[in-house]
């Protein structure tokens, strides 16, 4: 099973935000040594729980300290930026790690409306241009001609070289699936974001409407799921408490750092919130390494995707690294020395 990582640089109670960023870089090295395929980092803004706001910078740091694993954005929220500038950034990243860069693109703001406006005062106009922006960005990053009559046809993105980033479209709705199909690009659905709602339909639409491209003659689909492996189910459920409470608080509009499991377990919950907590415990991909691997494999087969991506939140960083180690072992990965 092809398995990759998404990391979001989660804020943790009692620790500075800078440590979350450094932990992301350290985790990438750890996951490379375990044999994972890709390591992706996300983009969020004005979010007190998810402090990874500049994935391209984190990618550069990871590129400098790894040798094999693919490094990607999941994703760059394209409406905030000029496609040409994004192309330049990813040309530089490809120069640092030739042939190892994934350029994952998203249309969602990764923030609230006010923050999107602060990032780009023209942000409200950009989402409708997303397909054209993707088209132009791919041409620039691959050093290919822009469409005939394009006003910036003479502009080139440097540095140039023999390799180019692999473009992915990311999303949690039908829209991204259709854009990926239109351009013949790999597509990843954020299953963890919507608890799977709409995921099977999006993958079906993607495959049904796929238009082969020179880079990708066949569709290539992935799902990103939240998962946590531990030596026992009891221990996994204990550490899940932190993330489960964060989800419940998020639904109430309360965002903040991830609490320790002992603190999260003492939270005062109403009847509806207690029921939600139990549902999260039942549905979550948690347990021993083999148990979690089996759940991931079953979903992969049922939905019919080519690879899976895992995101894990824990208060204790050692527990998170252990989770990825147990999962890699259960999947039969060969450690990279």
UniProtKB/TrEMBL annotation:
Domain of life: Bacteria
GO cellular component terms attached to this protein's record: cytosol
InterPro entries, alphabetized: Bact_Lucif_Oxidored, CmoO-like, Luciferase-like_dom, Luciferase-like_sf
One Pfam family of this chain: Bac_luciferase
Location of the Luciferase-like domain: 12-306
Gene Ontology molecular function: oxidoreductase activity, acting on paired donors, with incorporation or reduction of molecular oxygen
Family classification: To bacterial alkanal monooxygenase alpha and beta chains.
UniProt protein name: Luciferase-like monooxygenase
Species: Enhydrobacter aerosaccus
């Amino acid at each position: 099973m092809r398995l990759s990582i998404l990391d979001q640089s989660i804020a943790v109670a009692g620790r500075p935000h800078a440590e979350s960023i450094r932990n992301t870089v350290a985790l990438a090295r750890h996951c490379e040594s375990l044999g994972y395929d890709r390591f992706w980092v996300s983009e969020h803004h004005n979010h007190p729980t998810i402090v990874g706001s500049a994935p391209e910078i984190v990618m550069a740091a990871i590129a400098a300290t790894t040798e094999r694993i693919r490094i990607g954005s999941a994703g760059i929220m394209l409406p905030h930026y000029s496609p040409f500038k994004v192309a330049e950034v990813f040309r530089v990243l490809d120069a640092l790690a030739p042939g190892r860069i994934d350029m994952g693109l998203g249309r969602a703001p990764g923030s609230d409306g006010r923050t999107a406006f602060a990032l780009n005062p023209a942000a409200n106009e950009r989402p409708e241009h997303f397909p054209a922006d993707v088209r132009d960005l791919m041409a620039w990053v691959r050093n290919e001609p822009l469409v005939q009559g394009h006003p910036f046809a003479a502009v080139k993105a440097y540095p140039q070289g023999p390799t180019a980033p692999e473009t992915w479209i990311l999303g949690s709705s039908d829209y991204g699936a259709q854009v990926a199909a239109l351009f013949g690009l790999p597509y990843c659905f954020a299953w963890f974001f919507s608890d799977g709602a709409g995921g099977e339909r999006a993958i079906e639409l993607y495959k049904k409407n796929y238009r082969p491209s020179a880079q990708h003659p066949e569709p290539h689909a992935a799902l990103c799921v939240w998962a946590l492996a531990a030596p026992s189910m009891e221990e996994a459920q204990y550490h899940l408490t932190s993330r489960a409470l964060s989800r419940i608080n998020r639904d109430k509009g309360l965002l903040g750092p991830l609490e320790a499991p002992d603190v999260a377990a003492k939270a005062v919950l109403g009847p509806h919130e207690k029921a939600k907590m139990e549902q999260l415990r039942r549905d979550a991909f948690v347990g021993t390494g083999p148990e979690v691997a089996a759940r991931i494999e079953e979903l992969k087969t049922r939905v019919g995707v080519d690879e899976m991506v895992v995101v894990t939140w824990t208060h204790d960083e050692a527990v998170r690294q252990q989770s990825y180690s147990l999962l890699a072992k259960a999947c039969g990965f060969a450690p990279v020395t």
